[in-house]
């Protein structure tokens, strides 16, 4: 059976996982990433977890169909509830809302440890997720914008630590590492952030502090656009 392609979004996540990593994929659904990681030989041990019955049945069926039951452990649990600290090197939490990802991490602040790398891909509320990370002792080591199926996604590589950019409101909108990416995906991501800032600005009084902050963020992103896009 020929191995499936992950698609650009999950391929980018897989690209951040070094050979030999021990991975837990939280909210695995079809277990595509865990199966791909072991079938390609990138990893020898992956845990695929999900909170819900149907995804867990789907994950179990797929793991058996691909003959990887020995290497992919499927467990049903909420967030990190069923995951033993120290039992993995990389945790993937992809395809969920940013607030759900924040809630999963808030319940497992022990993940702020140099032993772990977290790969996060919020479907929504990326700004609130970054604010959560900065405010709770996580550092955004890398962030990559990726185009997949006509949409732009963002993938954050996070670890425990104090982010040097945590106090600058620009970096809640778009992280400093993402602003070092100079391609179409980054340009589209920043354009979307600028549209959202412009919408917010319309509802603010021109002499308010919030208006001035929004204007300043827009100006900085316009400068980025002019320089790199
Ligand atoms: C849209 S799927 C994403 C599948 C895969 N991670 C991906 O990115 O393609 C989201 C999955 O997250 C699971 N999920 C939602 N909240 C969760 C939680 N708190 N803990 C574990 N799984 C959760 C859902 O049941 C669902 O299967």
Strand and helix layout:
Layout: H1 8-15, E1 23-26, H2 32-39, E2 46-50, H3 53-65, E3 72-76, E4 90-96, H4 98-106, E5 117-122, H5 126-135, E6 138-148, E7 151-160, H6 170-173, H7 184-202, H8 209-228
Parallel strand pairs: 1-2, 1-4, 2-3, 4-5
Antiparallel strand pairs: 5-7, 6-7
Helix pairs in contact: 4-5, 7-8
Could you write a compact summary of the structure shown?
By secondary structure, the protein is an alpha/beta fold. The chain has helices at residues 8-15, 32-39, 53-65, 98-106, 126-135, 170-173, 184-202, 209-228, and strands at 23-26, 46-50, 72-76, 90-96, 117-122, 138-148, 151-160. The protein is elongated.
Explain what this protein looks like in three dimensions.
The structure is a single chain. The chain is elongated. Helix 7 runs antiparallel to helix 8 (209-228). It has helices at 8-15, 32-39, 53-65, 98-106, 126-135, 170-173, 184-202, 209-228, and strands spanning 23-26, 46-50, 72-76, 90-96, 117-122, 138-148, 151-160. It has a seven-stranded mixed β-sheet with strand order 3-2-1-4-5-7-6, sandwiched between helices. It is built from eight helices and seven strands, in the order H-E-H-E-H-E-E-H-E-H-E-E-H-H-H. By secondary structure, the protein is of the alpha/beta class. The longest helix has 20 residues, at 209-228. 40% of the residues lie in helices and 21% in strands. Bound molecules: S-adenosylmethionine. S-adenosylmethionine (SAM) is lined by residues 26-29, 50-52, 55, 78-79, 94-96, 100, 104.
